[in-house]
Write a structure and sequence with these properties.
By secondary structure, the chain is an alpha+beta fold. The protein has 3 helices and 4 strands; from the N terminus they run H-E-E-E-E-H-H.
């Protein structure tokens, strides 16, 4: 899938997009490593913080119902979090992304 098709809205979103974000600022006084998985309808964001607790609940958004990403439904959708985290875990294993593996496993185990 090309980036142009994704941006222009003609992508069928057959496969999710995995994102690694490099933070420009800290959250709650701590820098972090971030991974996200984006499907046609959902975005799951997971972070590993430098300061404890290292792993915390992430963010999940229904992009059809909430395109502005203003309502975090992470705690209300444990099965969806586990399913998306499973996809992230699979991708992270294939690409040897240890941080992605840690984040995905935390999200799946905390559900």
């Amino acid at each position: 899938t090309s980036l142009f098709r994704t941006i222009s809205g003609t992508d069928t979103w057959r496969d999710p997009v995995i994102i690694e974000n490099i933070p420009q600022a800290a959250i709650d006084g701590s820098f972090f490593q971030e991974r996200a998985i984006r499907t046609a309808q959902h975005k799951l964001i997971l972070r590993k913080f430098d300061m404890g607790p290292e792993f915390r609940d992430g963010e999940l958004y229904d992009l059809d119902a909430d395109p502005a990403e203003s309502v975090n439904i992470y705690s209300k959708q444990p099965r969806l979090v586990a399913a998306l985290a499973g996809q992230l875990e699979s991708w992270s294993g294939q690409t040897q992304d240890n941080t992605g593996l840690e984040l995905a496993r935390f999200a799946r185990s905390s559900r």
